[in-house]
Amino acid sequence: MSRQINLASRPSGWPTPDDFDLVEVDLPAIQEGQVLVRNRFMSVDPYMRGRMNDVESYVPPFRLGEPLEGGAVGEVVESRAPGLEAGDLVLHGFGWREQVVTEAARVRRVDPIEGVSPSAYLGVLGMPGLTAYVGLLDIASFKEGDAVFVSGAAGAVGALVGQIARLKGASRVVGSAGSDAKVARLRELGFDAAFNYRNGTVAERLREAAPDGIDVYFDNVGADHLEAAIERLNNGGRIAMCGSISAYNATEPPCAPRNLFLAVGKRLTMRGFIVGDHSSRMRDMIAEVGGWLREGRITADETVVDGLENAPAAFIGLLRGENTGKMIVRL
Amino acid sequence: MSRQINLASRPSGWPTPDDFDLVEVDLPAIQEGQVLVRNRFMSVDPYMRGRMNDVESYVPPFRLGEPLEGGAVGEVVESRAPGLEAGDLVLHGFGWREQVVTEAARVRRVDPIEGVSPSAYLGVLGMPGLTAYVGLLDIASFKEGDAVFVSGAAGAVGALVGQIARLKGASRVVGSAGSDAKVARLRELGFDAAFNYRNGTVAERLREAAPDGIDVYFDNVGADHLEAAIERLNNGGRIAMCGSISAYNATEPPCAPRNLFLAVGKRLTMRGFIVGDHSSRMRDMIAEVGGWLREGRITADETVVDGLENAPAAFIGLLRGENTGKMIVRL
Q: Average model confidence (pLDDT) for chain A?
């Protein structure tokens, strides 16, 4: 027996608890080459909202009446596969459930790190960490001396973008977030300036926070954040287009940015990217960011919610910005 | 004595004839190192609209009460500079006037080409030609087999973009223009599909014209054209952001594109550029495009207006799309 969360209905606009079903299922018997994994942590991420729509995108949509998917870290309970044994810690894509029986090839053994929660493999040492690393360094071609602005800066990705930029010699690191508490946290993390985008307009706040302009914008939000960034970008500026959380639950497309024509005269480069295309950089990211993490030079906040039954609320809360750092569900 | 067009007032929205002053001026006596040039052709270009605003951009604004500037081709009438003599054809930036006395260093001698009007140095073999060449090949990283869409396709730049793409092995070349006559002309120039954007919506017309999507969009227009292109772009698509003629006279910024968030999942790259940054490619362009021109494999249409006094009307007509190919004023 296990429990899992199925997609009950496709949300129109904001997801509600009714869009999710908590169900009990029988686990199949474990076959040769398979493992039984008990999940300890699962990830909720903004991109999952897109998979709830019936639209083919870079990942196929979730199916109605079937369990949602996503990153999870679990412990092998029983193994009939060489190279894996009970007690091993594994990373895999079968989140949103307490236990899973799967082929050994579909899980990856990870090493426990002294003093670091295994949930780090869902955050700073996982997909969000790689997103921040690749987006800043490869997509936005960050170089020492650049002034960097990141939106959603208190989120899993944003907080890492700001800290990596600082460690790599940014001239200024600016972040936006949705509450005064988050803004205070960003200052503790070493951001030179941070603002609450709910206070006034993004354009006004960004003008104050980056009076000399910015060279790089890491976009997690879209819409008015993107418009404000385009206004502040210096000639030759670069935008890493990572996400558009403002649009995910919108039923009408936003009327922004309205100043994209400025990209011509400013010679801006804007690049959208999907972290899954860049897994070849995972080794570099873990070496560099993992080193900073062990040395205490980088901080990876987590907001932890307990219990599979609370995973839908954790996900909806994530979309509302209730997390600081990585939103994790502990099972 | 010479005649010139001064900027009388800064237009708000669409320019009107009252924003221009035709004035007679005394020419200064020619000094050592200078030349007296009688202009034969002058250019009117969309970017000039931006210079009429009192806004610092990549080029300084025109000054009130002073002559407008822009590309021109003229004939040396008198020379007190070595290397230039009466009768030489020269290219320079002192358009909007009949004659000019200037330093020899500020003009460039150009060779007459058999069977080609000297005005080509203001079009296919000049700035518009380089814009098309660099924008398609360097900025949008065009490669053989790409499907290309260009807006403003019957303009000086757009018509060259489409023809260069075809000569370089595009799988499909699609253009938009503002009249049925222009659309017919694009088909004659070898475009695989062309549509009149005033018939229905750009999104609908582009879906019909590029049913399998596009890989490159060369943007001269912005707004709804850009939105439609983003919708049709394939994964890994590229946009060369060259101009936004739809915005130049707008008093309110356009509410488009509203689908920029698609750039993430599609991994789009959008790059704004200014041709002045790419003059190192002029030699390559003239070699390659000039070769096609001599072989009759590329066609460079011109719309010619006679007389300096008609230059303001030619410029306003250009902004309204009254030209096919390069808009030239013959003096």
A: 96
The answer on pLDDT for B57 being more than 90 is no
Pairing of strands B2-7, A72-79: unpaired
Q: What is the pLDDT averaged over residues B224-248? A: 95
Compute the CA torsion angle B296, B302, B308, B314 (nearest 10 deg): -160
Instruction: List CB contacts (< 8 A) between B260 and chain A.
Output: 222, 226, 241, 244, 257, 260
pLDDT value for A113: 84
Same domain (yes/no): A217, A320: no
pLDDT of residue B297: 96
Question: Once rounded to an integer, what is the mean pLDDT over residues A297-309?
Answer: 97
Chain A residues within an 8 Å CB radius of B262: 272
Q: What is the CATH number of the domain that holds A175?
A: 3.40.50.720
Pairwise CB contact (< 8 Å): A255 & B258: yes
If interface means Cβ-Cβ distance under 8 Å, which residues of chain B face chain A? 50, 57-58, 222, 226, 235, 241-244, 247, 253-255, 257-274, 277
Residues B151 and B270 in one domain: yes
More confident residue, A255 or B154: B154
Contact present, A39 and A45 (Cβ < 8 Å): no
Spatial CA neighbour of B21 closest among B75, B63, B54: B63
Mark whether A132 and A110 lie in a shared domain.
Answer: no
Q: Which residue in chain B is spatially nearest to A242 when comparing CA positions?
A: B264
Which one, of A94, A112, A113, A110, lies nearest residue A34 by Cα?
A94
Chain A residue set in contact with B, beta carbons under 8 Å: 50, 57-58, 222, 226, 235, 241-244, 247, 253-255, 257-274, 277
Regarding whether B246 and B160 lie in a shared domain, the answer is yes
Do residues A258 and A289 make contact, with C-beta atoms less than 8 angstroms apart?
no
Domain tally for chain B?
A: 2
Amino acid, single-letter form, for residue B172: R
Instruction: Using the predicted structure, report yes or no on whether residue B81 has a pLDDT greater than 90.
Output: yes
Inter-chain CB proximity A258 and B255 less than 8 Å: yes
Whether the CA torsion A118, A122, A124, A129 is positive or negative: it is positive
Q: Which secondary structure element, helix H or strand E, spans residue A318, and what is its range?
A: helix A311-319
Q: What is the pLDDT of residue A254?
A: 83
Residue A253: pLDDT band (50, 70, 90) is confident
**A102 and A203 inside one domain:** no
Query: Within this chain, do residues A33 and A144 fall inside the same structural domain, yes or no?
Result: no
Give yes or no: residues A131 and A254 share one domain.
yes
Which residues of A fall within a CB distance of 8 Å from B277?
Answer: 267
Does the structure show a pLDDT above 90 at B56? no
Mutation test of the interface with chain A: which of B49, B264, B270, B271, choosing the one with the most A Cβ atoms within 10 A?
B264
- B287 Cβ contact partners less than 8 Å away, ≥ 6 residues apart: none
pLDDT single digits (tens) A161-195: 999 999 999 999 999 999 999 999 999 999 999 99
- The whole-angstrom distance between B275's CA and the closest CA on chain A is 10
What is the share, in percent, of chain B residues with pLDDT greater than 90?
92
Which residue range is the domain that position B213 belongs to?
127-276
Residues of B in contact with A242 (CB under 8 A): 264
For chains A and B, CB pairs below 8 A equal 92
| Residue at B293 is within a domain | no
What share of chain A has pLDDT > 70, as a percent?
Answer: 100
